[in-house]
Amino acid sequence: MTDTNPTSGSASSPSLENLLHETRSFPPSEEFAAQANAKADLYEKASADRLGFWAEQARELVTWNKPFTETLDWSGAPVARWFADGTLNAAYNAVDRHVEAGHGDRVAIHFEGEPGDTRTVTYADLQQEVSRAANALTALGVRTGDRVVIYLPMLVESVVAMLACARIGAPHSVVFGGFSADALRSRIADAEATLVVTADGGYRRGAPSALKPAVDEALAPKEGAPATSVQKVLVVRRTEQDVDWVEGRDVWWHEALEAADPVHEPVAVEAEHPLFILYTSGTTGKPKGILHTTGGYITQAAYTHKNVFDLKPETDVYWCTADVGWVTGHSYVVYGPLVNGATQVLYEGTPDTPHRGRWWELIEKYKVSILYTAPTAIRTCMKWGDDIPGGFDLSSLRVLGSVGEPINPEAWMWYRRVIGGDKTPIVDTWWQTETGAIMISPLPGVTATKPGSAQVAIPGIAATVVDDEAKPVPDGGGGYLVLSEPWPSMLRGIWGDLERYKDTYWSRFDGLYFAGDGAKKDEDGDIWLLGRVDDVMNVSGHRLSTTEIESALVSNEIVAEAAVVGAADETTGQAVVAFVILRGSHANRASTAEGAAEVQKELRDHVGKEIGPIAKPKKILVVPELPKTRSGKIMRRLLRDVAEDRAVGDATTLADSSVMDLITAGLAAPTAASED
Ligand code: WTA
C-alpha cells in the first residue's frame, strides 16, 4: 500500500527541507480509499441533515435499551441534551454485546507491563471481570449516581474499574497517577466521591513506584479541610510493595473480586446520566470538573474511533499510548475502541524502559496497525534517532494518529517516513477534554493530508475561525477557534458550577463555543491550530494552568510573588518557566549559585507536592521585580521573551518601564537559578 502522491514518491530519504518544500499534501492511495470506513459522501450526508446524521450514528454504533425518539434538545443551551429519552449502558456497549454477538474469544486487551509481564484479556474475560467489579462496588455500598475516584497506573484494572462504574451508573473521576496527594484530595472533595480505587503502586522506569501513600495522605484529616466523603478504598495489588492499611476502609481489589459474582445485570441509565467527571486545568487556580454524560459521549467516541482511525475490529490491532488519567485515555483507550469491539495494546510503562526501542518492539510483537500518540513522544523518538525504530518491523502500521498539541511539520514528516514507512496516512486530531471526542481531523482514505494541519471539522461537526468581533475569517486569516453547533459528546457543564461553564466557554462570543485555541485558515480553507490564547500551557500534551502553578509557588513561605509562562520547548512543545520574587532575607539566599540552586530545588519539589511532578517548572528564575501594567496585570508576553531568550518586546505599557532592564540584568549574572 503506497500513496499516489507524485511528489513524495518512494525516493530514499530525501532531505527534510526538500520534502517540506515540495510536499504540500499526501492524497490517499486508491487502495486505502477503496477499503476505508469513511467515504467522501459522509461530509455531504452530515451537512444535508446534521441531526439525522447523528441519530443514524447513535442507532448504528450503540445498542439502546430503550430507543430514543428525540435527537437534540438545545432549549436549555448551552447545556445540551442528546438522545435524552433513550436509555442504555456504556459498559454493556463496550463489553457484553460483543460477547453476545459471538466475539467473546476476541482479544480486547493485550496488556504489557513495564517489567515485561503480559496478560491477554478477551471480551469474555472482560465481561466477567467487569461484572465482578460491579458487584464488588455494589457490595461496598456504591449506588447509581455515587462518584468513584480512580487513581491507578495503566493496568487492565484501570479499564475494568471505569467500566464497572459505568455498569452501575456511578460516574467515575479518574485522577492521573502523576498528580500529588494534594491534587487528589481537592478532586475527591470537589466530586464528593465515596470510594477510591487505587493500587499499591506501578512500575515506572524500571522500578516499582508507590501510589497508595498518596491516597492515604489525601484522605488523612487536614486542618482547614472538610472531612472526606470517602468510605472505602479498593487497592489493586501490582507491585507487592508494603502498604499501610486502614482497617474498615481499605479492601484488596483481588479479594473483593474473588468474592463477587461474575454475573451482573448492567443498569440501563438515561442517555443524559453522568458517565464521568474529568478534572482539567483552566485559567484560574481551581481545576474544572468536566462533566460528560452517556449516550452522546459514547456515540461520538465510537463514531470518531471508527472513521478517523479506520478501525476494522476483526483485523486491526490498535494502540493508543495515552494514560487513562487523561481524556484521550477515556475516549480512545476505553470507550471508543471497546464500544467498537477493537483489539488493543495497553502498556504500563515509559517508551525508554528498558530501552529506547520499547514502543517499536511492542508494535512488532503485537503487529499493531493503528498507533495514536502525542507530538512530544514523536519528537523525543526523533531525537533518539532513526536507527532505533529502524531496528524493528513496523510494516503492520497502516494509520498513525497525533493528539494533544500542534504537531510541527518536521515531526509529522518524520512520523510518516520513519514510523509509517512513507505510506501511512497521518491523522492530526484536534479536540479537548471538553469536547469529549475528536472534532477536527483528516479522514484517512478521504482527505489529502497536510503536515502540521488538523485541517477540517469531521462530518457532523461545525468548527470555524473567527476574529475579535466573532466574524469568520477569510481563507488566509487568523483568529480564534470556535464551534458553532452543539455536538453529541460535548461537556454538559462543570461539576457543581454551571456559571463557570457559561462564563468560560460561552461568554466570549454569543452562541459560539470558545475553545481557547488560536487558529488560522490557510488558502485552501484548512485549519491550523496555533496553541492556547489563554493562560493554559501545554507541556508534553498535558494541560497546565499558569495560575495554578503560580498559586502553588506563592503558597511556599519563601515566595513573595510568582509569574509562570509556557516557553517554547523543542521536545515538550512548551516548558514551564517560573519567575519568582523571594521574601525578605530569602532573596539573599539566591545570591550565590549554590543558594539559587537550592532555592530552585525547594520550589520545584514544592510544586511537585502541591500539584504533581508534571507541573514542576523546568526553570525557576529569581528576579527582583515582575513586569506589570498600570492596572497590576503581569505582562507574561515580556517574560516569555526572556524565557525564550529573545529581545524583549514592546514594554511601553508597563507601569515602570525600567523593570525589564532590572530583570534581564539580574539574569545575566551567574546567580540565576535554573535546572539546566
Ligand atoms: C491542544 C486533549 C493542536 C489544544 C485531547 C486544546 C491540540 C488542548 C491538538 C486540549 C491538535 C489538542 N493540534 N492542538 N491536534 N489536540 N490540542 O483537554 O490547545 O488535554 O485546547 O485534550 O490541547 O487538551 P486536553
UniProtKB/TrEMBL annotation:
<dbReference type="GO" id="GO:0005524">
    <property type="term" value="F:ATP binding"/>
</dbReference>
<feature type="modified residue" description="N6-acetyllysine">
    <location>
        <position position="633"/>
    </location>
</feature>
<keyword id="KW-0479">Metal-binding</keyword>
<feature type="binding site">
    <location>
        <begin position="404"/>
        <end position="406"/>
    </location>
    <ligand>
        <name>ATP</name>
    </ligand>
</feature>
<dbReference type="InterPro" id="IPR042099">
    <property type="entry name" value="ANL_N_sf"/>
</dbReference>
<dbReference type="GO" id="GO:0019427">
    <property type="term" value="P:acetyl-CoA biosynthetic process from acetate"/>
</dbReference>
<feature type="binding site">
    <location>
        <position position="328"/>
    </location>
    <ligand>
        <name>CoA</name>
    </ligand>
</feature>
<feature type="binding site">
    <location>
        <position position="554"/>
    </location>
    <ligand>
        <name>Mg(2+)</name>
    </ligand>
</feature>
<dbReference type="GO" id="GO:0005829">
    <property type="term" value="C:cytosol"/>
</dbReference>
<dbReference type="Pfam" id="PF13193">
    <property type="entry name" value="AMP-binding_C"/>
</dbReference>
<feature type="binding site">
    <location>
        <begin position="428"/>
        <end position="433"/>
    </location>
    <ligand>
        <name>ATP</name>
    </ligand>
</feature>
<dbReference type="Pfam" id="PF00501">
    <property type="entry name" value="AMP-binding"/>
</dbReference>
<feature type="compositionally biased region" description="Polar residues">
    <location>
        <begin position="1"/>
        <end position="16"/>
    </location>
</feature>
<feature type="domain" description="AMP-binding enzyme C-terminal">
    <location>
        <begin position="548"/>
        <end position="633"/>
    </location>
</feature>
<dbReference type="InterPro" id="IPR045851">
    <property type="entry name" value="AMP-bd_C_sf"/>
</dbReference>
<feature type="binding site">
    <location>
        <position position="543"/>
    </location>
    <ligand>
        <name>ATP</name>
    </ligand>
</feature>
<keyword id="KW-0436">Ligase</keyword>
<feature type="binding site">
    <location>
        <begin position="204"/>
        <end position="207"/>
    </location>
    <ligand>
        <name>CoA</name>
    </ligand>
</feature>
<dbReference type="Pfam" id="PF16177">
    <property type="entry name" value="ACAS_N"/>
</dbReference>
<keyword id="KW-0007">Acetylation</keyword>
<feature type="binding site">
    <location>
        <position position="517"/>
    </location>
    <ligand>
        <name>ATP</name>
    </ligand>
</feature>
<dbReference type="InterPro" id="IPR025110">
    <property type="entry name" value="AMP-bd_C"/>
</dbReference>
<keyword id="KW-0067">ATP-binding</keyword>
<feature type="domain" description="Acetyl-coenzyme A synthetase N-terminal">
    <location>
        <begin position="41"/>
        <end position="94"/>
    </location>
</feature>
<comment type="similarity">
    <text>Belongs to the ATP-dependent AMP-binding enzyme family.</text>
</comment>
<feature type="region of interest" description="Disordered">
    <location>
        <begin position="1"/>
        <end position="23"/>
    </location>
</feature>
<dbReference type="InterPro" id="IPR020845">
    <property type="entry name" value="AMP-binding_CS"/>
</dbReference>
<feature type="binding site">
    <location>
        <position position="540"/>
    </location>
    <ligand>
        <name>CoA</name>
    </ligand>
</feature>
<feature type="binding site">
    <location>
        <position position="559"/>
    </location>
    <ligand>
        <name>Mg(2+)</name>
    </ligand>
</feature>
<protein>
    <recommendedName>
        <fullName>Acetyl-coenzyme A synthetase</fullName>
        <ecNumber>6.2.1.1</ecNumber>
    </recommendedName>
</protein>
<dbReference type="GO" id="GO:0003987">
    <property type="term" value="F:acetate-CoA ligase activity"/>
</dbReference>
<dbReference type="InterPro" id="IPR011904">
    <property type="entry name" value="Ac_CoA_lig"/>
</dbReference>
<feature type="domain" description="AMP-dependent synthetase/ligase">
    <location>
        <begin position="101"/>
        <end position="495"/>
    </location>
</feature>
<dbReference type="GO" id="GO:0016208">
    <property type="term" value="F:AMP binding"/>
</dbReference>
<keyword id="KW-0460">Magnesium</keyword>
<keyword id="KW-0547">Nucleotide-binding</keyword>
<dbReference type="GO" id="GO:0046872">
    <property type="term" value="F:metal ion binding"/>
</dbReference>
<comment type="function">
    <text>Catalyzes the conversion of acetate into acetyl-CoA (AcCoA), an essential intermediate at the junction of anabolic and catabolic pathways. AcsA undergoes a two-step reaction. In the first half reaction, AcsA combines acetate with ATP to form acetyl-adenylate (AcAMP) intermediate. In the second half reaction, it can then transfer the acetyl group from AcAMP to the sulfhydryl group of CoA, forming the product AcCoA.</text>
</comment>
<feature type="binding site">
    <location>
        <position position="532"/>
    </location>
    <ligand>
        <name>ATP</name>
    </ligand>
</feature>
<dbReference type="InterPro" id="IPR032387">
    <property type="entry name" value="ACAS_N"/>
</dbReference>
<dbReference type="InterPro" id="IPR000873">
    <property type="entry name" value="AMP-dep_synth/lig_dom"/>
</dbReference>
